Amino acid sequence: MKLPAPMSLVQIARFIDGEVQGPPDMVFDSIATSPMSANESDLAFIFDKQLVKQIDKCKAKAVIVPKGTKVDRPAIFVVRPTYAIYKMLSAVGAKRYLPDEGIHPTAVVDPSCQLAEDVAIGPLVVIGPKTKIGARTAIMANTVIGGEVLIGQDCLIHPGCMIADNVQIGNRVIMQQGASLGSDGFGYVTERPSNMELRMNGINDLSEEANPLLKIPQIGTVIIEDDVEIGSNSTIDRATIGATRIGKGTKIDNLVMVAHNCQVGTEVILVSQVGIAGSCHIGDRAVIAGQAGMKDHVKIGKDAIIQGQAGVMKDVGDREVQCGSPAHGAKDFMTVTALSHKLPVLYDQVRAAEKKITDLQKQIKELQSIGSIPRLEKVQK
Known about the structure:
Shape: flat
Helix content: 10-25%
Strand order of the largest sheet: 7-10-13-16-19-24-27-30-33-36-38-39
Number of domains: 3
Radius of gyration: 31 Å
CATH superfamily of the largest domain: Hexapeptide repeat proteins
CATH topology of the largest domain: UDP N-Acetylglucosamine Acyltransferase, domain 1
Number of helices: 7
CATH class of the largest domain: Mainly Beta
Largest sheet: 12 strands, mixed
Number of strands: 39
Strand content: 25-35%
């Protein structure tokens, strides 16, 4: 990665709050994208534990490493490596091409909208009636915004986003490409009990007659609080009644599904392909890893961690770590998984023990038949 301008080791250290080892005036014009592919003129970040062990294979003339790492070349030592990356990339990141202030001539904006003077509306954007958009917010190309939507200040809506009627968005919210807010929640009912309901109640007398699925009106909304980021092609459904709410500072990865009436706390992390069924409550700072799924009406406690591909079928307490499907305590899951690998050996051992027992029983019967040992019933008498 090319730096905008050559920088010395000490200048970079100041950016990332690091300590310098070696000549402070050593100059760099690039940072290696991968430490193992670095050349002799690069500066390289080496934070992964496995890569730190292979640091001798890195050709970079200087490295940025965790404090306490022993290196025999110029280096910058940092206490918190990922924070150092954040600070560095924030300082040298490439320019993003946002729409200019004002309304692009191809945009369609209802005259009843209230837009701050320095809002930027890109090409082919559509904005419905009575929508209000706050100062310094940028709406990029091909985004569609419904009626009576409230969008706060300093938001960035990337291309192709969909924001339905009556949705409320706070300040400094980022929506990545194709994110969708406010589609109808998935709710249907039948006039009489469906075959599924009968089956769930243990009734097998099912009907072949038509029993149409009737759409339950979804008259609620979606509320996105301040400093939330929503990843590409993620969807957050409006509530049946009330609001689906995403708490302040929560970060949602790509391809995440949040169903109607969910309440997601502050600073929650939802990783790619997480699916959260209706009316779930996710506590503050919980982390839900990739491809995990929640049953409807489940409560996840504060600071809980749900590991990847977990299937959560019941409530999870504060600070619990769960994995597996159905999900349960991570320690128990790891123990069971480790033991399951031994099942073939244990199975062979059990079969061998069964054979020995059968052979012993046969030998005992033979000895009893010739009177070599007394029968059990005689001993008991």
